[in-house]
Design brief:
Layout: H1 2-16, H2 20-44, H3 56-77, H4 83-89, H5 92-96, H6 102-107, H7 114-132, H8 140-163, H9 177-185, H10 197-206, H11 214-220, H12 225-253
Helix pairs in contact: 2-3, 2-7, 3-7, 3-8, 8-12, 11-12
Length: 259
């Protein structure tokens, strides 16, 4: 399946790179929006040294994991955001007629070029944060890569589940559920333990964005390294399985435009 995935993706990338002005605009916009997010803790920490026990570099590290998972999803799986429109316009019929996994076809339907700059920006932010935290052991690199991949799978799973809601709640090709869930998940860009307990429960067990940046940062701080990594792997596998099931159920519920 992976060769097919990258083959489909490479063809779409070629078409997008033909528009150079659009490419650079997406690169710049990706960086600017993330700079704004970094500006919030930057301003706050000019007047204090810690917030609920969290240092400035540690908050930046949480943000870096968020940037990387978001950037990779934009770059590799942005097609999932086209699903509501495909269902409404009947373009999913074409996908279902091909002898290739429908999910892979949907995921490769689009590419968010801004994902390139967001990913690079996330790497830079992560490196600077780790250096400031004095975590400079090169052996930490494989662990960081693993944590980023796990976070990306969790984010992708949430995207698949929420966008698949269109199979049951199709309102003229629009689906607000992913945006509502994403808006709530944005709270996980900062330390989750600063929120009330009910919000923490939501960000861990309902919208698991807390496992994307918060838990990996705890692990890199040296807290719960073994059990934390195991929990992250389990959560990513669980939610991806749920996402696959929801998508397949949605396909079965789909009514072709030709029916």
């Amino acid at each position: 399946m992976l060769p097919i995935f990258f083959k489909l993706h490479s063809q779409y990338i070629k078409t997008q790179l033909e528009y150079k002005a659009n490419f650079w605009m997406m690169m710049i916009s990706g960086v600017l929006t993330r700079v704004v997010l970094l500006a919030v803790p930057f301003v706050l920490y000019r007047n204090m040294t810690e917030i609920a026990g969290w240092k400035e570099s540690e908050v930046y590290l949480i943000l870096s994991f968020t940037f990387l998972s978001e950037g990779l999803c934009n770059l590799l799986f942005n097609g999932i955001w086209q699903l509501p429109d495909m269902v409404f316009n009947g373009n999913l019929d074409i996908v279902l007629s091909r002898p290739v996994s429908p999910l892979i076809q949907v995921l490769t339907k689009d590419i968010g070029l801004q994902g390139i700059s967001i990913t690079v920006f996330g790497v830079i932010t992560m490196v600077l944060s780790l250096v400031d935290m004095e975590v400079t052991n090169l052996l930490i690199i494989p662990l960081c890569v693993l944590l980023v991949l796990v976070g990306t799978v969790i984010r992708l799973s949430v995207y698949i589940i929420t966008n698949s809601a269109v199979f049951w709640f199709n309102s003229g090709g629009s689906n607000n559920i992913p945006y509502i869930v994403g808006g709530i998940g944005d709270f996980a860009k900062y330390p989750i333990d600063i929120y009330p307990k009910w919000m923490q429960i939501i960000l861990f067990f309902i919208i698991p964005f807390g496992f994307i940046g918060f838990v990996p940062t705890l692990i890199l701080k040296g807290l719960y390294m073994g059990i934390g990594t195991a929990v992250l792997l389990a959560v990513s596998i669980l939610f991806f399985i749920i996402a696959r099931i929801v998508f397949k159920k949605g396909i079965k519920n789909y009514e072709s435009m030709g029916m």
